[in-house]
Design brief:
Elements lengths: L7 E6 L2 H9 L8 E4 L7 E4 L1 H4 L9 H7 L4 E3 L3 H18 L3 E5 L2 E5 L9 H16 L3 E6 L2 H11 L4 E3 L5 H5 L12 H9 L5 H5 L3 H8 L1 H10 L15 E12 L2 H21 L2 E12 L4 E11 L2 H15 L5 E9 L2 E2 L10 H18 L23 E3 L1
Helix pairs in contact: 4-5, 10-11, 12-13
Length: about 400
């Protein structure tokens, strides 16, 4: 029986947040742009290729990024605009292909296996890319190969705003000359270990015995060997609407400051409920997460009546935090809203619903027009986009 050839496309929107900002403000074209918190404690959520030439990259402290590229334009970011642009791209992909997986706000996998009997899969992917560019104005890159790993690496090599096809049987040759850090899921510590072993290129890793890699890295050694050799049987998981949204913040230094942590959790909740209202969704569960300096993690959650109101959730967030917090240094905190469903906030009999709805509409319109966190409640005024980057720690499930 003839083996079925897989055709897997990896699509990634280039510098997505920056690209969306440039659509709104073309004067940013050609300039180094940083998206994220502007203070010394802020983090770079996204940066333009012009900024990357100076050594700036995502997740870098904003203080470091400013020192490397002092001429950069810094923008706090607007999640509503990014979410809307992502939905536009998702809708185009949904209309164009039978099976796709959305792994983040700006990244997708598409399975074209079987379509090669009737179409040129590279042409299908090319036409899809051109449609996204034409209808959204956003630059986008893709890689096509026999599996997820090679396609993702190919996308990275095709950037910015390009495309690359790695033909069947040429996976190892394509990967061999690349640095080992190009392989997905090999982190910085593993890279350091590989470099100390004299393994610099993927080709060096290909020549290692599986037994030796398992001795050094344990079960991860087999994964590294397989990916280096272009072996990946993981499937494309059909896209489903996310079930929860969350936001996490890792402190640069472990902290005991309970009032500041409470204030930050409230600010996270305000940001998340704003997103729910923009997407006409509501949550029926709430969770607070605390990770201590020894990496012990405590998560407490409770069920709530479906809502997208921060006023309803603020006291519950504080209550969960109070039950979870212990008198020891905290490394990370987070909030998760789960069991998402379509619909606007349903008020109960005692809510001043009309007044609250008008207030939300006013706040949301201002934040949508001028950027997330332009206007916020007094209780969160101590936390601004200069200190808290609402995009760096977001998780969508």
């Amino acid at each position: 029986m003839e083996e079925v050839k897989r055709y897997i496309v990896h699509i990634d929107l280039d510098s997505f947040f920056v690209s969306v900002e440039r659509l709104k403000d073309p004067s940013l074209n050609g300039k180094p742009v940083l998206i994220g918190g502007a203070s010394d404690r802020g983090v770079v959520a996204s940066c333009s290729y012009e900024a990357r030439k100076f050594g700036v990259h995502s997740a870098m402290p904003m203080k470091t990024a400013r020192s490397l590229c002092p001429q950069a334009v810094i923008i706090g970011g607007n999640y509503s605009a990014y979410s809307q642009a992502s939905r536009m791209v998702t809708d185009i992909i949904r209309q164009s292909v039978p099976l796709f997986e959305k792994t983040s706000i700006d990244e997708f996998y598409i399975d074209l296996t079987g379509m090669d009997k009737f179409f040129d899969c590279y042409q299908v992917a090319s036409e899809l890319r051109q449609r996204v560019i034409r209808e959204t104005g956003l630059p986008i890159s893709f890689g096509l190969s026999s599996n997820k790993t090679v396609s993702k690496v190919a996308t990275g090599q095709a950037k910015p705003n390009g495309q690359l096809y790695v033909e069947h049987g040429k996976e190892k040759a394509f990967l061999a000359p690349l640095p080992v850090r190009k392989i997905p899921m090999i982190g910085s510590k593993a890279c350091e270990t590989l470099l100390s072993m004299g393994i610099h290129k993927v080709g060096d890793l290909q020549q290692q015995s599986l037994k030796n890699l398992e001795r050094v890295f344990g079960r991860m050694g087999k994964m590294m060997w397989e990916k280096a050799n272009g072996i990946d049987f993981s499937p494309v998981v059909p896209y489903q609407e996310r079930k929860s949204i969350s936001s996490e913040h890792t402190f640069q230094q472990d902290t005991y400051d309970i009032p500041a942590m409470q204030q930050l959790l409230v600010s996270m909740t305000e940001q998340l409920t704003y997103r729910l209202r923009q997407e006409n969704k509501q949550a029926a569960s709430l969770a607070v997460k605390i990770r201590y300096s020894n990496f012990e993690t405590i998560t407490r959650q409770l069920a709530v009546s479906p809502t997208n109101s921060d006023l309803v959730l603020f006291p519950l967030v504080k209550e969960l935090f109070a039950k979870s917090c212990q008198k020891r240094p905290v490394r990370l905190i987070g909030v998760r809203l789960g069991k998402l469903s379509e619909g606007a906030f349903q008020a109960n009999l005692f809510d001043n619903h009309e007044k609250n709805q008008k207030l939300y509409q006013a706040l949301d319109q201002l934040n949508q027009r001028f950027g997330t966190k332009t206007v916020s409640r007094a209780i969160t005024m101590g936390i601004s986009t200069r200190d808290f980057n609402p995009f760096s720690g977001e998780i969508e499930e």
